[in-house]
Specification:
The structure holds two protein chains of two kinds.
Chain A: H1 7-25, H2 34-62, H3 66-72, H4 82-85, H5 91-112, H6 118-147, H7 150-167, H8 177-182, H9 189-206, H10 229-236
Chain B: H1 4-18, H2 31-56, H3 65-90, H4 96-104, H5 121-142, H6 148-178, H7 181-200, H8 212-217, H9 225-242, E1 253-255, E2 260-262, H10 268-278, H11 282-295, H12 297-316
Antiparallel strand pairs in B: 1-2
The chains are: A mainly alpha, B mainly alpha.
Chain lengths: 248, 319
Amino acid sequence: MNILTLQPYLLALADDQMILSHRNSEWIGHAPILEEDIALANMAQDELGHATLFYNLYCALTGDDPDALVFLREADAFRHVQMVEYPCGDWAFTMLRQYLFDAAEMTLLARLTESAYTPLAETAVKMRNEELYHYRHTSAWLKRLGLGTEESHRRTQTALDTLWPLAQQLFVPLPGEEELVQAGVIPSSAQWKAAWLDVVRPFLTTCSLTIPADDTPPATNRAAHSEHLAPLLADLQKVARLEPNAEW
Amino acid sequence: MIDSAPEKKLQEFEERIARGEKIEPGDWMPDEYRRQLIRMISQHAHSEVVGMLPEGAWIPHAPNLRRKMVLMAKVQDEAGHGQYLYHAAETLGISREEMLDALLAGRAKYSSIFNYPTLAWADVAWIGWLVDGAAIKNQTMLAQCSYGPYSRAMVRICAEETFHYKQGKEMIVKYMTTGSDAQKAMVQDGLNRWWWPMLMMFGPHDSDSPNSPVLMRWGIKTRSNDDLRQEFINEEIPEVLALGLTIPDPDLLFDETSKTWQIGPINWDEFWQVVRGNGPMNAERLAARQKAHDDGRWVREAVAAYAEKVASSKYASGK
């Protein structure tokens, strides 16, 4: 197997973390309680750290510069799922998006720690503990939101109706998947999805939430984005693009 | 006997302060000491929380991975400082809810510096260097203050603020020494706007500072506003000038006799206008806090309802 086959996979992992970190960071200063300003800032930093680790693995293969990739790349070259580019919405949307993502990351990292590609396995080990904390935090919140008041339940169910199909895009196979799976570098997306469903389905049910019937992902590849990406990148790249050749 | 008891207590209290002892939450203290501390600590906590807004606004625009990480960590620290300080104030018998209500109703103040807008990325760097630098001067003094919980909170906060100061200064030094013309211009423009408001952060002249005498008497403040401002000016002006920046003060001069920097007159009318709520960003800052508070109401209600359900189910099942 040619290790360059791993490029699209690493970029997808990095972009997912990067864009989610950016969205979560928008809460800092605006959360419902001060303790959550701290928690969101913490998760956003962890995700930015994870994104950086994945960009470093990607750039080791391509020779690119991580900062240029994030701050000067055009929208159509980003490879994150649409779920992470959606605006923060309300607290229910933010926490549910984070929960679905954390469960996906947790189940993926557990498998990537055994990757035949040592740099990827080592990176997964580094990230795994932080991800467990995120998962605990978001699952504690979902219990409160799902079982708290009528309003919190309604808002969380509405968020789930939007997010459930969006989340399925995480498991759309990327180019080269078969070869990477055979070489023991990554788990198959089908296997990953099954592990994710085993975690999230029973948990969401205990939160009194109904899993929507519609599980059609919004796109069959990661080049397709929603209308939310352009304004997001205008924010993200605003200062860097003032002086693209300067050091910041 | 009854009449002399409070006087005796006051005398003992003042003797403790004179010996350098810390006053702790359960100890006897004059009502005015408690009132002044609640006013100061809650104002300080609100400053941390409102202070998240002008810098937080630039987290989405931070220009590279490292700067974004640092700025998130910095604003997170401010939230943490707000949290310690609310806890310190709670030891005096006020709740966080009461303090937040006072903030949102406009009864409690916060540092006026946060009523100025952050218009460019370099403003974040100046806030780190000069605004946090000025805050460190004040907080280093408060770390010596007579009230134990406030003093201990300040020790932790100062340690973190030192990192904030360094990251801001590092940015300015970098842009001024290896940056592009546009970066240098952005830095100078930031200095032009932040210089005077930053000097006002130390508070009015000692002669116009109504709370200072009682604060000094009871060891809450141990140094005067003018004294701290002068020390700060003496330390920072040479460093700013060494980078080729121009300080926006035509009267600035170095006095060879006293070996101190002398600044021109501060516009105290502007200071009092901002304190009274008429600064450029007062309404926006409070509106942002109010919105977060209102948008979070259903979330806090859900948390309370869930806690109640868990408690009643434990009770019902005898656990």
